[in-house]
Write a structure and sequence with these properties.
Elements lengths: L6 E5 L4 E6 L12 H9 L1 E8 L2 E5 L5 H13 L4 E5 L5 H4 L9 E5 H16 L17 E3 L2 E6 L2 E7 L8 E5 L4 E5 L15 H12 L6 E4 L4 H5 L6 H16 L11 H9 L9 H16 L3
Helix pairs in contact: 5-7, 7-8
Amino acid sequence: MTRALRRQVFELNDHLIAFYDGRNTLRLSPDPNWVDDAANKLGVATYAIHQGHDAIVFDTFPTIDQAQWQRSTLEAMGITHFTIVTSHWHNDHIAGNVVYQDSEIVMTARGLQFMTDLQADLEAGTTLFGPPAIDPVILPTRTYVGSTVLHVGTIELELRQINIHSPDETVIVLPADRFLLSGDTTEDTETFMVEYADLKIHADNLKEMKKWADFDRILPNHGDPERIAAGGYDKTFITATADYIENMIKGARKRGFLDAPLEDFAGKALRRCEVSLFEPYREVHEFNKAGVFPIWSNR
């Protein structure tokens, strides 16, 4: 049963738009699946930087229907030329690319490697994150390593690759606006862990990212829609994410780790309102603990 989900468009300034969907009880399917039970349940934001008839779109949503809503909204504004930047290879960031297969799609070279290696699994939808399948998987048409600069008219964007959450992660800095579009490097209430062995690297890289001097505000792909609509998070959001990761690494060696609640690892950030408690993230925390424990409990 397909139903329309709650959708919002936030005009953050005269050239930056956030699209937000999810955080509701409506489902695409009664069966367990990664769209309903992970991405849309937690809420998904994507972004567009536009000027004149051109737009750069940062991620394209977990479903074709959502991506078509995103594109149709932009086309109604007179935008006719799109460039897609894909933050990383995970399902909820690439599924909507099929709506933009007539456009240039930019990603890290590492991301293309992941997508090429995993294409058959992604299109089958039976392994990795499970159903629904992403068929066809639309691969990037342009890649970069390290960093690269793009323009939308007179607006400059810098794409930077950083190993946080996923080794192929791209974040975007808008230096004139002092915004960081953070992809999945930061997440409210807490990060969704996948690459467990790299968690120490992620925490260290978060601390380095916080030192970047060309942004003050952060716009994540998964976060509180009210915070995003109000202009995003400050740099304490990065500290909150790094602290949660480090607390999980340390906590894995302690008795009772697998029974410990979210507040034991993110309590300080919650009390300081650096992040907010969205109840479905308790399930994410349980998922994280199950992955962290086998790798970090004996280190």
